[in-house]
Amino acid sequence: MHQDAERCVRAVQSKDARFDGWFFTAVLTTRIYCRPSCPVAPPKVENMRFYPSAAAAQQAGFRACKRCRPDASPGSPLWNHRADSVAKAMRLIADGVVDREGVPGLAARLGYSVRQVERQLLAELGAGPLALARAQRAQTARLLIETTGLPMADVALAAGFASVRAFNETVRAVFAMSPTDLRMRRSAPSAAPGALSLRLPFRAPLCPDNLFGHLAATAVPGVEEWRDGAYRRTMRTPHGHAVVSLRPEPDHVACQLALTDLRDLSLAIARCRRMLDLDADPVAVDELLGSDPVLQPLVAKDPGRRVPGTVDAAEFAVRAVLGQQVSTAAARTHAARVVAAAGTPVEDHGLTHLFPTPEQLAELDPAVLAMPRARKTAFAALVRALASGALDLGVGADWAKARADLLALPGFGPWTVEVIAMRALGDPDAFIPGDLGVRLAARHLGLPDTPGALVERARAWRPWRAYAVQHLWATGDHEVNRLPA
Question: Of 44, 224, 262, 394, which residue is 20 to 30 A from 423 by alpha carbon distance?
Fold first, then answer.
């Protein structure tokens, strides 16, 4: 979009927040870059330059605006909803791969050479993988500076900088302020002892009912819970674990994070954003789905529905198998039994375990699985494939290959594969026409209720069929689409 200057100018002049994260506006006279909705008076058109990423603006010598804080805007919806190599690279960078494995590690995961990866990112984003990772480290540093009392040396290490000097230079270059000056300006909200309190921005509108209602209704005891108006869960991270609390607010999601290692902060935030689908473009989704006369009343009633995701794709795949052909309550019971038998214990108020890894599940006593033999076989095959690395469901996974690999496992049919594609892989076009709730809703709305006919009818909803499913589920008494009281 940044190449459509006329459209960008209109968005800046109207201060349209819908375009925050889609592009960034740099001002030649002030050498500052902003989000489109910046509250200051728009600059002259001839002084505007547009960049596809904050990293590209920073690399061009512009520093972040102190008013609109463009580095903290919602991310581009393209990276979570596209399946090409650039989108995979952006998801992997957000997951901290460059910081942990370097650019060669990123390239290896993508199956390209370092040179190819750098060329593709520069062509589309105006910045290479190191610059993009640097921009992410700067944002992480700012969060730590403004929400904790950590010494600056600890902040630098936690944000992923190789040295305090590099940390100081980057903060000054990106924010035109020293780390000490940034801390003096902080006005951080209160947090529980030992926790970081953050605001997760999103594009309006957002319908919290299906999002938090689903997460709460399917919560696995010991791993997840709904308490005092917030969804809480444990999360396994590269350097330890985290406990996160997420509460919907009118203009943001309030997030409290307790981490065993602060180096996992940016990764934990990225995973929470993916789980809540906060980088979606609800206007684009609602516009297309609302153009269907059957879905239009549903979209008008609850605009901004999101697709609930997960913080751990392997975890969700296991839970999908445990939930095959049983009720939500039964699926929770099966998962809770597995967690108690193989999960890693943690100490937190109400939360007791991390969900077990595939390696831990591979050693699980089959007697714990009170399921039919066919489902036990599917469970064992999935766990072996995940533990061996034969099945990749990570943020950089190839969606088509992952579907094919899942279908090749015993006990995996279209329903299980598409649910995993929707919730774990994040494919916005995943569709489950054979789901009982979807078929009942289709019948109620006068749509075809046979899978083949419904798939044909749903072609008009592409590429947002996963969002259409959320609306279909909401038409009946669907137990996982209501916000808990």
Answer: 262
Are 282 and 294 in contact, with CB atoms under 8 Å apart?
no
Model confidence, pTM: 0.88
Query: How would you write the chain as a 3-class SS string?
Result: CCCCHHHHHHHHHCCCHHHECCEEEEECCCCEEECCCCCCCCCCHHHEEEECCHHHHHHCCCEECCCCCHHHCCCCCHHHHCCCHHHHHHHHHHCCHHHHHHHHHHHHHHCCCHHHHHHHHHHHHCCCHHHHHHHHHHHHHHHHHHHCCCCHHHHHHHHCCCCHHHHHHHHHHHHCCCHHHHHHCCCCCCCCCCCEEEEECCCCCCCHHHHHHHHHHCCCCCCEEEECCEEEEEEEECCEEEEEEEEECCCCEEEEEEECCHHHHHHHHHHHHHHHCCCCCHHHHHHHHHCCCCCHHHHHHCCCCCCCCCCCHHHHHHHHHHCCCCCHHHHHHHHHHHHHHHCEECCCCCCCEECCCHHHHHCCCHHHCCCCHHHHHHHHHHHHHHHHCCCCCCCCCCHHHHHHHHHCCCCCCHHHHHHHHHHHHCCCCCCCCCCHHHHHHHHHHCCCCCHHHHHHHHHHHCCCHHHHHHHHHCCCCCCCCCCCC
Beta-ladder partners of 50:
25
Number of neighbouring beta carbons within 10 Å of residue 370: 10
337 by Cβ neighbours in 10 Å (0-12 / 13-18 / 19+) ranks as: middle
Query: Which structure tokens are listed for 287?
Result: 């516009």
Q: Do residues 159 and 140 lie in contact, with contact meaning Cβ atoms separated by under 8 Å?
A: yes
Told to judge if 95 belongs to the known catalytic residues of this protein, a careful annotator would answer no
Catalytic site includes residue 34: yes
Among residues 34, 68, 255, 272, the one annotated as catalytic is: 34
